[in-house]
Amino acid sequence: MPESQAEIAARVASMPDVDEPGKESKFTGPEPQVAQQVFEEILARGQEGITQVINLVHDATDPDFKDYRAQYVLHGLAVYVAHPDRASLQRMLVETLVTHLGRSDLSRGVRGCLIRELQWVGGPAAIAAIGGQLQDEELGTDAVSALTAIGPSAAEVLRKSLPQAQGRNRLAIIQALGVLGDAAVVADLKNAADDESRDVRIAAIWSLANIGDAGSADLLIKASDTQNAWERIRAATSCLLLAEKLLAAGRQADAARVYSHLHQTRQDPTEQHLREAAARGLAAAK
């Protein structure tokens, strides 16, 4: 092993042992000043030092997996460089993680680890690389979480990936676009609101509500009148959310129409809370 790699391996190995099951917890972890010294020594080697840590990370299912320490140190580096005074170190770490995310020789478990660290420190520079994992069956949801954490600048890559997305990746992307408030995806979300999957329908309706699209009011009202109990309550809750968004945007008449429908149709005692919420909304919309 090259001297530099041996030195990095020694730094990684210096991390404390985990608490043992059945024994009193010691809240194990290095002293802050010790951890800082380790991180600074690794970062002083530039991308090479970070790469050497990444090379020590193994998937827990990998026969070469020994312990958690390399992943622990990698996460520690991400937390350390996130300080506002360490922007240049953060850029270096992000560039290194992005480079290695494209390595075909890394297992999905390790690449998933890199994506989760980019969720902490990634920014616009990491969007394209993370977006390249959105269709991966195993890594897609990690990629969605990381892009959501980056914020609205990542909405475009999520939106463009939606037509090809399948299964849980599709569901996660729909939810993320709603969280990010991406109005450009409204047409796609309206189509998804009629999906054969109940979970996708519920997610699409919530996303339309959170975006605050007034043109989706009729669609949400119709969805809220389904007889399926679970879907009915979720859609009604989304109607309340949409009405709140419309009210906040100064569209009292549009909000009142949604509130009125819920107030008139929620007559069953089990839906009294929805009727009462709608009544409060109507009062606020006057």
Give a quick precis of the structure:
The chain has 286 residues and is an all-alpha fold.
Structure description:
With 286 residues, the protein is an all-alpha fold. It has two domains: 1-122; 187-286, Alpha Horseshoe (Leucine-rich Repeat Variant), CATH 1.25.10.10. The protein contains 16 helices and no strands. The chain has helices spanning 3-13, 32-43, 47-56, 69-81, 87-101, 108-121, 127-131, 140-150, 155-161, 167-179, 186-192, 198-211, 217-224, 229-248, 252-265, 272-285. The N and C termini lie far apart (74 Å). 41% of the residues are buried.
Range of strand content:
under 5%
Cα-atom Rg, whole angstroms? 24 Å
Shape: elongated
Quickly count the helices.
16
N-to-C series of helices and strands? HHHHHHHHHHHHHHHH
